[in-house]
Amino acid sequence: MLSEAVPAAFGAALYPPALLFVAFLLVNPQPWKRALIFLAGAVIATLGVGFAVVFILQGTGVERDPHHRTVPAWVDLAIGVLLVGAAIYVWFRPPRGPKAATERKELDLLGLLAVGLVMYSPSPLYLAALHAIAKAHAAVLVTILSVLLVAAIYMLVVEIPVVAHAIWPETTIRAVTAVNAWLGRHGRTIVVLAAGAFGVYLIVAGTVHLVTA
């Protein structure tokens, strides 16, 4: 379960736009308050989708024998195709420049919450992590803790800067700027490789399950 879910979550966590947006919030007035509102939106979207997807997938795949419960193989195939498609799209998509700072300054607290909700709508890699949790059909408490862990990993690029800024404000700004620049150079390649690898794995696994069923 976690052996598949955690790597996928780390791949999903490589999200340069979120890091760039957090860096912008931290160098403007009321950084702590505004960053927490943005993080709240991300948490609502991430956990809401996480619990919904996991329990819905488990509900669709439960068989009478509790020892042979599994998510249908077509879900493996669907998510695998989605991941490969996302990898191809990201690889060929032209780089997008950052939004103008003037547009961001107009956001009120409700707007920041909405941005968090939208930016952390589920990515293909996050869906793959949730899918891995759902396939395990572990106890309810274990499933809940697994979703919480995967969601926390998914939001690392927001969580770490916000916490660090409260302790080392100036150092955090320099570090976030440097990391964001590195992700700008290498983030696309890492995301493409991670999404492509998990996608191929799920396609093969789903095909094998359908053939041998």
Task: Produce the secondary structure layout.
Layout: H1 2-13, H2 16-26, H3 31-61, H4 73-92, H5 101-105, H6 109-119, H7 124-136, H8 140-154, H9 156-167, H10 169-212
Helix pairs in contact: 1-7, 1-8, 2-9, 2-10, 3-6, 3-7, 3-8, 3-9, 4-7, 4-10, 7-8, 9-10
Q: What is the chain-wise order of helices and strands?
A: HHHHHHHHHH
The proportion of residues forming helix, as a percent range, comes to over 70%
Question: Unreliable stretches, pLDDT < 50, 5 or more residues?
Answer: 62-69, 98-105
Radius of gyration: 18 Å
Query: Which oligomeric state applies?
Result: single chain
Please outline the major beta sheet: none
Number of helices: 10
Form type:
globular
**Beta-strand level of the residues, as a percent range?**
under 5%
Distance between the termini: 21 Å
- Tally of distinct domains: 1
Description:
This protein has one domain (2-212). Helix content is 82%, strand content 0%. The chain contains ten helices and no strands. The longest helix has 44 residues, at 169-212. Mean pLDDT is 80; it is low at 62-69 and 98-105.
